[in-house]
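The protein record filed here:
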Amino acid sequence: MSGLAKDFFDCCGGDGLTPLDDALAALAGRLRPVVGSETVPLRQAQGRVLAADQLATLAVPGFDNSAVDGWGVFADDLGQGETRLPIGGRVAAGNPLTGPAEPGFAYRIFTGAPLPAGLDAVAMQENCREADGVVVLPAKLRRGDNIRLAGDSVRIGDIPLHAGIRLAAQHLGVAATLGLTTLPVRLPLRVAIFSTGDEICEPGRPLSAGGIYDANRFTLMALLDGLGCQVSDLGVLPDRVEVVREMIGKAASQFDLIITSGGVSVGEEDHVKAAVQSLGSLHLWRLALKPGKPLAVGQVGDTIFLGLPGNPVAVMVTFLLFAKPLLAMLSGATYREPRRYAMPAGFALSKKAGRREFPRARIVDTPLGPVVQLFRTDSSGVLTSMTEADGLVDLPEAAVSIAPGDPVAFLPFGELIP
């Protein structure tokens, strides 16, 4: 992202409220990956972002094979009822039949064993009877039964692994089936994180008068770890603009992204805003979002700055809905919009038009089936609501009136939290 324009983020600010989808679309049209790539062994690729499409140069499986343990036959030898055939040989995985298979015989075959040419049906062993060198095959066995064809999983020329996926166990398994020993992956996004405020205390230390323990920093670091970022904890900074400015200046020369929470409003003690503006540019956005309306995005040199709200629930919600796709853009990952599930409401609610709301909710079983029930309060300062809830309800910007039993869009945390 070399040479990033100074007004890069001056696209969604202003006095009005910006819809969440509009803000993300604006970023998607501007942001590009800021990290390079490297090649690593498969065992080190877990959780990394694939940097290039992987083209299959071989088929998987590479040959027709049996899907079960049983008996391979020529379908033309099968009768309308049970069929009796003499045993012609044995085929095991890794041990092909020596010589060609001949019509009129049944061949003992095991799961994964290569299917001899001409055999075009396999009967499951539990459906067969064997005695005195003869096998009794079941009725209704048909051509193609219990056979896996060559290329059934991957064909030559397929792209089974696409650039941008975050590699999980199943992807590494596919890579191994292709015979790959290494994969090109994006370098981890380097993220610095710090908190500010004379009232913010490090957990484990005595609380000062009027002090609170720092929850936001630890919440954000855990979320960033889950996205494969290389996270550096810069700690808690005092409310002194010169200290904050010095730390941001140093961080901008070492990291791809700086994230803070709070400290970017218009108060006299909100020094983060002044520090970023003195070193680069900062745009205060007002998202049409609850919780999480205030947001700050900017840059110092080529390093992006993201200032999230100060309340702990707003921090999590804005991270999951806004920062997470932003991080995907910067790290070269493909962002998949989390799925919403239609579920009956277990509550009544009316909201005005203008803001998209994401109240916390849990799934409750009732005699008529599960319903979604809202948390007891919508305060964005009650972080325990994120442990008691199962997810968020997505209420659109338009005015809505919901009665018990009405379908609502439910976002489970399993779709959101990495």
Q: What stands out?
A: Residues 312-331 form the longest helix (20 residues). The CA atoms of residues 74 and 291 lie 66 Å apart. The radius of gyration is 30 Å. The chain has four domains: 20-35+188-331, 40-57+159-187, 65-148, 341-416.
